[in-house]
Amino acid sequence: MIISTSIWGDIEVNEKEVYRFEKGIPGFEETIEFVLLDQNEAPFYYLQSLQQKELSFVLVDPFIFYPEYEFELPDSETEELEIGSNLVVRSILTLHEQVENSTINLLAPLVFNPDNRQAKQVILHQTTYQTKHPLQPTKEDETIRSKEGE
């Protein structure tokens, strides 16, 4: 299938790369179909809207930057996404001109079920994670992690 993007122009994607966000992504509720692109730019991925060629997000695997990152997916979210044992977690990256100032959203990870192609941005509650963690963990982030482990 061919899709139009503002970054790469028209590209061919496999329908198996398309994920459905039943309720959209907060702030973009009207857009529910996205393709998860791996453009061989590890550790970065792109989430491209099928409905709006201008809408895409840069994603990263949060565990690469924060190996001790963890959260419990609420049962309601697990049931909604029909997750068995297979899931993929990515976080939205906010890029800045100086890469070292870029941030990663650990408060609201994107959870993907590759088995049924459903996905959702999950807002974590009762956590010290924030929407803007630096790509390079700071002493403060290490303190947060050590407090969570208590």
From TrEMBL:
Region of interest: Disordered: 130-150
Keywords from the named record: Bacterial flagellum biogenesis, Cell projection, Chaperone, Cilium, Cytoplasm, Flagellum, Translation regulation
Stretches with biased composition (Basic and acidic residues): 138-150
Cellular component terms (Gene Ontology): cytoplasm
Gene3D superfamilies in UniProt: BH3618-like
Subcellular localization, as worded in the UniProt entry: Cytoplasm
BP GO terms, sorted: bacterial-type flagellum assembly; regulation of translation
Chief location category: cytoplasm
SUPFAM superfamilies membership: BH3618-like
Role summary: Acts as an anti-CsrA protein, binds CsrA and prevents it from repressing translation of its target genes, one of which is flagellin. Binds to flagellin and participates in the assembly of the flagellum.
Stored PANTHER family: FLAGELLAR ASSEMBLY FACTOR FLIW
Subunit structure: Interacts with translational regulator CsrA and flagellin(s).
Family affiliation: Belongs to the FliW family.
Protein name, UniProt field: Flagellar assembly factor FliW
UniProt organism field: Paenibacillus terrae
